Amino acid sequence: MKPHIKAKLASLIAVTGLAGAAFAAPQTFDFKDPKGVNNAVFKLDAPLEAINGSANGISGQVVFDPAKPEATRGRIVVAAASLHVPNPMMKEHLHSEQWMDVARYPEISFEAKSLKGVRTDGNSISADAVGTFTLRGVAREMTIPVRLTYLPDKLGARSNGQMQGDLLVIRANFSIKRADFGINPKAPEDKVADTIELTLSIAGAAPR
After folding, report:
1. Residue of 107, 139, 174, 199 with fewest CB within 10 Å of its CB?
2. What are the φ/ψ torsions at residue 155 (nearest 5 degrees)?
3. What is the pLDDT of residues 138-176, one digit of tens each?
4. CB–CB of 52/42 below 8 Å?
5. Distance between CA atoms of 37 and 21, rounded to whole angstroms?
6. Domains of the chain by range and CATH?
7. Closest Cα to residue 127, out of 109, 113, 140?
8. What count of Cα atoms within 13 Å lies in the side-chain half-sphere of residue 178?
């Protein structure tokens, strides 16, 4: 191939690549993890007793554009019935009408409307997610600190080569008040803390 033709071809490929990047659409990441690894952890640390548990019934979708992370939006849902503590009797109480009332309120959710205070470091993004947190039918506007890690072409590594695509990992640590959501407000705070500490670590997939 002649040098001038090769140069033109290289330029065409470069322009095409730039055009594709410029018009790349936001991706939708699905957080229903078939591996069951996604989880939420909760902790109540009262003077007389500490309660620790987790939930793995996580689903939801998040729309994310690495070129415009502040426009991130979506909804993450935790199945209330998947809340688990090691003590069987305590778990029964946790699911009961007085506590989480999982029969009446089967979902715990956070609907993110946008990110603010976005700080980017490579593929990692720290920000405050602005949205609505809903628990036991009570919806409250909240701002939650989050860290997003965008991992292009890593879905194959997570799925042992069964799927190809990108991953979005979301991590968050925040707290809520038991009284704000009507979770057994009469429980003594020396045994059941009013503050519930929550930790979320989840990965969503965008197959292609």
Report:
1. 139
2. -65, -35
3. 999 999 999 999 999 999 888 777 889 999 999 999 999
4. yes
5. 32
6. 26-207 (2.40.128.110)
7. 113
8. 22
Provide the residue count of the chain. 208
Nearest to 77 by CA among 96, 97, 56, 51: 56
Per-residue DSSP letters for 102-130?
TTT--EEEEEEEEEEEEEEETTEEEEEEE
- Among 108, 107, 31, 23, smallest CA distance to 62 is for 31
Q: Which tokens belong to 100?
A: 């989480």
Name the burial class of residue 62, with classes exposed (0-12), middle (13-18) and buried (19+) by CB atoms within 10 angstroms of its CB: buried
Are 163 and 155 in contact by the 8 Å Cβ rule? The answer is: yes
Encode pLDDT of 53-75 as tens digits. 999 999 999 999 999 999 999 99
